[in-house]
Amino acid sequence: MILRTIILLILNFTALAIGGLFTSSGVKSEWYTLLEKAPWTPPGWVFGFAWTLIMICFAFYISFLWESMQVKRTLVFLFAVQWILNVSWNPLFFKFHQVNLALIVIVLLTLLVTYLLFKNLKELQLKSILILPYFLWLIIATSLNAYISLKN
Predict the structure, then answer these.
(1) Residue 74's domain spans which residues?
(2) Of residues 133, 16, 116, 15, the one with CA closest to residue 62
(3) Residue 138: CA atoms inside 13 Å, Cβ hemisphere, count?
(4) Is the CB of residue 9 less than 8 Å from the CB of residue 55?
(5) How far is CA 10 from the centre of its chain?
(6) Most Cβ neighbours (<10 Å): which of 15, 45, 100, 110?
(7) pLDDT at residue 133 tops 90
(8) pTM for the whole structure
């Protein structure tokens, strides 16, 4: 389990690093600063803290889930789709300014994480708390993206 968790941490933080390539310059861009943003948009440092916590917890969650799943191929597929959706949001939003397409991506990501949470809640029980930060943050992030989509 330790090696699996380390591999998942590397994959998760690789996703964050790729996203960071687009986010850091995107947040400072004139395009982003001129957007009408939701009043509940948290300060910038919250995003880094939240995603760090989320990716650590998610690595452990997937490791526990791996041990309990019979069909591991399904979990690999779901993790890969989650990874692709997560990584693709940043360039769509910050580089290509495709806020509506980014909204579709984040809604799909939210649905996938919601599926993982509720599909495995009975089996993982208390360990399901590890995916809760991801689930809650995606609800907030989706609302932020939706606000920008509607108001700009």
Answers:
(1) 2-151
(2) 116
(3) 27
(4) yes
(5) 15
(6) 15
(7) yes
(8) 0.94
